[in-house]
Design a protein that fits this description.
By secondary structure, the chain is an alpha/beta fold. The chain has 2 domains: about 1-110, ATPase, nucleotide binding domain (Nucleotidyltransferase, domain 5, 2-Layer Sandwich); about 125-300, Exopolyphosphatase. Domain 2 (Nucleotidyltransferase, domain 5, 2-Layer Sandwich), CATH 3.30.420.150. Helices cover about 45% and strands about 20% of the residues. It has helices spanning about 45-50, 55-70, 85-90, 95-105, 115-125, 160-165, 175-190, 195, 210-220, 225-230, 235-250, 250-255, 270-285, 295-300; strands at about 1-10, 15-20, 30-40, 80-85, 110, 135-140, 145-150, 150-155, 205-210, 235, 285-290. The strands form 2 sheets. The chain has a 6-stranded mixed beta sheet, with helices on both faces. A 5-stranded mixed beta sheet has the order 3-2-1-4-5. Helix 6 packs across helix 13, helix 9 packs across helix 13 (about 270-285) and helix 11 packs antiparallel against helix 13. It is globular, with a radius of gyration of 18 Å.
Length: about 300
């Protein structure tokens, strides 16, 4: 069996994929293990430009567990394709942190650019049967958002953690905070309008990562994570707008009681949902397909 492992360490979430590939190593046959842990490594990075001590310890504890899972499958953590994204690009102590990670876990992380992140996310986010030429992928992370198609795209420094910390500070949020956040998102997305005009009119938007999966689980009323059901789901722009409005008036505690909600994501979900809704509105997508795949899949092949 040709097993390989990959890690996607983002601003909010750390994901481990152990998958079986074909003998040539060019195609993923099945996911053997697929783990997601909210570590919030990027907490405070937007303000301080440095990884914070508690966030470092949370993330190291997660990676120690992941290293054990990799070794249990007979794999070497040093051979894991481990990539880090927005928070690592922004933090001045990132190199020091990743040196410690290698000493304590064996994982050798590579910090990737926003452009490479977007390309790998597009490659990994496509579900079986979807046309690359008629698809666009949006990955709303904690620190940045990637929007890309086979004809290119862009990484934008808007994310669920970054914009919650920057704009949505009250609980529940105030109207002034909400509108300031929406205006900032719209300004950041406006340069992508020309990119959208170059795509076929029937291009399908595919939303990957935690924000999209959580909104999908809430929409379906899932009591537990079900990748099979989520990967079949299409949500309209109107449905996303409705969820944004409901998240806006709820407190964080109230959000945690919504079906399908990850409690640790409840505080940043409004910003993530707002980014998705505004992207669909400004770029002319009437619906989006949910995909539980993404960067960790693209990195393996």
């Amino acid at each position: 069996m040709n097993l390989r492992s990959s890690i996607d360490l983002g601003t909010n979430t750390c994901l481990l994929l152990i998958a079986e590939l074909n003998p040539e190593g060019t195609r993923i046959l099945r996911a053997v293990e697929d783990h997601s842990t909210i570590v919030r490594l990027g907490e405070g990075v937007d303000q301080h430009r440095a990884l914070q001590p508690q966030a470092i310890e949370r993330t190291l504890a997660c990676l120690v567990k992941y290293a054990a899972a990799v070794r249990a499958r007979g794999l070497d953590p040093a051979a894991t394709i481990a990539v880090a994204t927005s928070q690592a690009r922004d933090a001045r102590n990132g190199a020091e942190f990743f040196a410690r990670v290698e000493r304590e876990t064996g994982f050798r992380f590579r910090i990737i650019s926003g452009d490479e992140e977007a390309k790998l996310t597009f490659k990994g986010g496509l579900l079986p049967g979807l046309s690359a030429e008629h698809s666009a992928v949006i990955d709303i992370g904690g620190g940045s958002t990637e929007i890309i198609s086979s004809r290119g795209g862009q990484s934008v420094d808007i994310g669920s953690v970054r914009y919650t910390e920057r704009y949505l500070k009250s609980d529940p949020v105030t109207d002034a905070e909400f509108w300031a956040c929406q205006d900032a998102i719209d300004s950041a997305l406006k340069p992508l309008e020309n990119w959208r005009h170059g795509l076929p009119g029937d291009t399908q938007l595919i939303a990957v990562a935690g924000t999209a999966a959580t909104l999908g689980a809430w929409y379906l009323g899932l009591e537990k994570f079900d990748a099979g059901k989520l990967d079949q789901l299409t949500i309209t722009r109107g449905d996303i707008h409705r969820m944004v409005e409901e998240l806006k008036w709820r407190t964080v505690a109230e959000r945690t009681r919504l079906p399908g909600m990850e409690p640790k994501r409840a505080d940043v979900l409004l910003a993530g949902a707002l980014i998705l809704w505004r992207a669909m509105e400004l770029l002319g997508f009437s619906q989006c397909r949910i995909s539980t795949r993404g960067l960790r899949y693209g990195a393996l092949t």
